[in-house]
Design a protein that fits this description.
Elements lengths: L10 H12 L1 E5 L5 E4 L1 H7 L17 H4 L2 H11 L4 E8 L5 E12 L5 E10 L1 H20 L1 E5 L5 E4 L1 H7 L3 H4 L10 H4 L2 H11 L4 E8 L5 E12 L5 E10 L1 H22 L3 E6 L4 E4 L1 H9 L1 H8 L19 H9 L5 E7 L2 E11 L5 E10 L1 H26 L3 E5 L5 E4 L1 H17 L20 H9 L5 E7 L2 E10 L6 E9 L7
Antiparallel strand pairs: 1-2, 1-5, 3-4, 4-5, 6-7, 6-10, 8-9, 9-10, 11-12, 11-15, 13-14, 14-15, 16-17, 16-20, 18-19, 19-20
Amino acid sequence: MGWFSNSKKSNNDLIVTALNKSLAVIEFEPSGIIITANNNFLDVMGYPLEEIQGQHHSMFVSKKEAQSSEYKSFWQSLKGGEFIADEFQRISKSGKDVWIQATYNPVKDEHGNVIKVVKFASDITAQKMLAVEAAGQIAAISKSQAVIEFGLDGSVLIANDNFLQTFGYQLEEIVGRHHRIFIEPEVAKSEQYQLFWQKLGHGEFDSGEYLRIAKDGSEVWIQASYNPIFDLSGKPYKVVKYATDITAQKELEKESKRDADLSSALTICQASVMMADNDLQIVFANNQLKQMFQARQGELQSVLGDFSVNSIVGSSITAFFENTAQQVQLYTNLTDSIESKLEIASLIFNIIATPWFNKEGKRLGTIIEWQDLTESIKKSTAEKRAAEENLRVRRALDRVATNTMIANTKNDIIYMNEAVQNMMRAAEQDLRRDLPNFDCSQLIGQNIDVFHKNPAHQRNLLSKLTDTYSAEILVGGRTFGLVANPIFPQKMNVLALWWSGKIEQPKSQ
């Protein structure tokens, strides 16, 4: 039974007995034929002793391996007295893989000839599977994530292709350099950054979103974890970072925030704005627009039927137009802002439609600004009519022989017909006797007080005028008959003065 059956217990025998208790042990002839095996080995491989004695070692390996040149060389080396130690994959009786950490030890006689081979083995299947699983997980992570390793001082040890591609470096450009090459100089100088590496050096994990800088200076946002790795004594000796590039996601967040800010600004801005998508469905209406439509809802419903401000979002912009097909074509092909007038019932709106693009140039829809012109156009029309009427009156007054002058509420002269101008021109020299600065050509814009010795009394009288007032005034030796009438167009007081010709010529001096 080999050295398992020795009766004499030498010191070596005691050592072998101890090994036999803790290890799986099997003996082979130099040719690989099994001599014996202990219970540990039989338990690991799932065989009883009688099933393996006399069989070749090849029963524990695959058929392919048994027929390989490497396997033949393996036994030739052992037969030649060469010691072999390694991890080996073997097959149990049930066909399962068994991983062992083993040494194959040739035993020689006193002449130096190999008489047998003793293998001492430990079953490391469980550890091997854990290691394989961990390696698989690391490989999977490395395929999908950017991975880089640092020394505790922050110097780069190695990085995978994903990391290098993300930051635009070659491996030789970063190995040995400090992590700070990936951050802004101001950050690298900060106390917070120093504390970051101190924390990692003490074995503390760190994770979050980080802003980093690529080789070309562009910003790279990463979702990352910094993982201290510990040695067998529990001391950290390096840091492995696993990272995912979230730059695109961050850009989307920025765009979303900008869109939210824009929406908020449009919501409270004073312009009346709506936004429609490419199908001309209204997706946004700000408060100012809703208030404008709410004030006009009755008129709009007289034409648009069930129109409601509360349901405007989600409805089609074409509902406001008579020629729907034409409007669809116009807005669909819009490339620049267009301005137009829209009449609905008795309402008049000014509309500015602008194509809406994102930063990539993709058309998102149309932004439409509304302005209710109804009241301003009504006012403008009324003022135009009044102006036309005033023009007709003025032309009539220009032609009449009656001396006519009109003053505003401040008693400033704003109109004189030709007849009164001729009268004042004829009397100018006489009037200058009492009014030295009198100039008939400069009367428009002057106050009628210039004709009165007691302007305060006259002003008080005219301010309370509600009906025709007649009087005579003596200026420069001339006596003038004066008839004053208040005019109240649209509550704007105007005073009309009719001057009679001279009643009494001044006596020659």
